[in-house]
Write a structure and sequence with these properties.
Length: about 325
């Protein structure tokens, strides 16, 4: 559930004032700077969400909020910086589910998703769509599977890079459908999409808001979405689960976390504030334009998601034979 939207600004300030940071300073003193670390470049999904939350916090709480982009190593650099920050409520992390996937893709990473952080809230989810170039002789998922089985290893697919959600989504598709497609990794989405449109690659998973305009221009064909339920932006597009791939779910999810040791009172206050922000219609509309669905809920919801996804994606990486770096 979302937090109640009946909180006035005064009531919210009162909630935050009750959370006293180490050293005795309360949030209501208005002297602190809240730093939101995003372990990816500006313009990415986590960056967008961090800036929306930051802007709303500034307006509601009269706090100084700074978004810091610390990209590199698939998010590991910025995530390490957040993990090492003082657990005083002044540093937060906004990230995507590569946060969990990285544990299986690297021999060692500088944080533990479950031990280095305390979850605050699941911010949003975004659907990934399975798409093909129009020249690919497959109008449906079953036809794509049949085509891939008739030409094992000949069809290729793009991703924004090794270990990205799009990469692992297709590897899960391959494992579930028992097909062999060749992975062509790119250093970012732009080159991957460009080559998909040029028919240099046959297929890929794309965020639904990226896929829909390309479909309208007949540059790609959308075969399905990888969500548990149909995407509200494309209700006519079936899910892979509907088409026989039971429990197939490759949604992107985005979360806010704090360094381990952050007092529960501070975590709970952030959860309340973020939940109230995510319940606002204008925030939900802004996210919807980016293909995202606002979530919210208690910290335990994100905690359970982290634990379950860590196990699930570790199995995909192992079964797909992806060697860790």
């Amino acid at each position: 559930m979302y937090a109640s939207s009946n909180y006035s600004r005064r009531k919210l300030l009162g909630l935050l004032a009750a959370a006293v940071a180490p050293g005795g300073r309360s949030w209501a003193q208005g002297q602190q700077i809240v730093r939101i670390i995003v372990p990816f470049t500006a313009g990415t999904g986590p960056d967008l969400l961090a800036r929306i939350l930051g802007d709303e916090m500034r307006q509601r709480l009269n706090e100084t909020v700074v978004v810091e982009n610390k990209p590199g190593a698939s998010g590991n650099i910025g995530t390490q910086a957040a993990a090492r920050a003082n657990p005083d409520g002044q540093t937060l992390l906004v990230t995507v589910n590569t946060f969990v996937m990285n544990t299986s893709l690297y021999r060692s990473i500088p944080y533990d998703p479950e031990k280095s952080f305390v979850p605050i809230v699941e911010i949003a989810t975004g659907a990934l769509a399975l798409v093909v170039h129009p020249s690919t002789k497959a109008d449906t998922v079953s036809e794509l599977i049949a085509l891939a089985r008739s030409r094992p290893g000949e069809l290729n697919y793009a991703s924004p890079g090794r270990g990205t959600p799009q990469h692992l989504a297709m590897e899960l598709f391959k494992l579930t459908a028992h097909v062999n497609l060749t992975h062509i990794p790119y250093s970012g989405s732009a080159g991957a999409v460009k080559d998909l449109l040029a028919n240099e690659v046959s297929a890929m998973f794309l965020p639904i808001h990226t896929a829909l305009p390309l479909r309208e221009n007949e540059q790609i064909r959308i075969l399905a979405v990888g969500s548990k339920v149909r995407a509200p932006q494309a209700p006519q597009v079936p899910t892979l689960a509907e088409l026989g791939m039971a429990d197939f779910d490759v949604d992107l999810w985005f979360g806010a976390l704090a360094p381990a040791g952050t007092p529960k009172a501070i975590v709970d206050r952030y959860n309340t504030v973020f939940g109230e922000i995510l319940a606002q219609p204008h925030v939900q509309a802004t996210l919807a334009k980016q293909g995202l669905i606002a979530q919210g809920g208690p910290p335990e919801r994100l905690s359970e998601l982290i634990v379950a996804d860590r196990v699930r994606w570790a199995k995909v990486v192992k079964d797909a034979g992806i060697a860790p770096d």
